[in-house]
Amino acid sequence: MRLTFLGHAAVRLEVGDHDVLVDPFLSGNPLAPYGPDELRPDHVLLTHGHGDHVGDTVALANASDATVVAMVEIARWLADQGVANPVGINLGGGVDLPFGRVSLHPAWHSNALPDGTYGGMPAGVLIEVEGRRIYHCGDTALFSDLALVGRRGIDLAFVPIGDHFTMGPDDAVEAVRLLAPAHVVPIHYDTFPPIRQDAAAFAARVNAETDATCTVLAPGEGLDL
């Protein structure tokens, strides 16, 4: 299982014959190592509807006939955009897919599609595959119910640290304590000036103050899980 950071909050998961993207913001992302024409996912997972997360979903799904899993309101919007295989679920719900199971969990944020359409509730995405649990927090503030997700046993968590639009480094360290993952990768930072952060300093705090191991990935870098 290979996990690759694609800049901002975009993540690629390669497992077996499956290629899965989470929040594929590539066009317009100055940190993205790939353009949308270079990837052919079979599944796309979305945390919420903001343009820097939906990103290139429509183009990617139409090019590769990918299944897109998202909040029900987002799935309906995607269908209106011509996406053939949207799967709408809701908070607390999940769906079994060929590569594993995906479920949505609460995140504290706002949510609207690029054209202003209501996008339902924002979410974090839990991916269960090959006996591992990977949690993408999405865009969220710090809140105590992250501990409920952590009780499931998280092997790796993608945690936003950018501040301004999400929790910043101080709150993100506390979020790591609540999630109690084995490994952490920071996301949603450095893409634009308002969210510039020192990811190395965050990693040092996580490694010193929690039981997790934090790895900072440059866009295009990955790790095996």
3D architecture notes:
Helix 5 (169-179) packs parallel to helix 6. The chain has helices at residues 51-54, 57-64, 72-80, 146-150, 169-179, 199-209; strands spanning 2-5, 11-15, 18-22, 43-45, 67-71, 86-89, 94-97, 100-106, 123-129, 132-136, 156-160, 183-187, 213-214, 222-224. The chain has one domain (2-215): Ribonuclease Z/Hydroxyacylglutathione hydrolase-like (Metallo-beta-lactamase, Chain A), CATH 3.60.15. The strands form two sheets. A seven-stranded mixed sheet has the order 6-5-4-3-2-1-14, covered by helices on one side. A seven-stranded mixed sheet has the order 7-8-9-10-11-12-13. It is of the alpha/beta class and 225 residues long.
- Report the average pLDDT across residues: 98
- How much helix is in the residues? 10-25%
Q: In terms of per-residue confidence, which ranges show pLDDT below 50 for 5 or more consecutive residues?
A: none
The name of the CATH topology is: Metallo-beta-lactamase, Chain A
Number of structurally distinct domains: 1
CATH class: Alpha Beta
**Based on CA inertia axes, which overall geometry fits?**
globular
Structural class: alpha/beta
Radius of gyration: 16 Å
> What is the CATH architecture descriptor?
4-Layer Sandwich
Keywords:
single chain, 225 residues, alpha/beta, Metallo-beta-lactamase, Chain A, seven-stranded mixed β-sheet, 6 helices
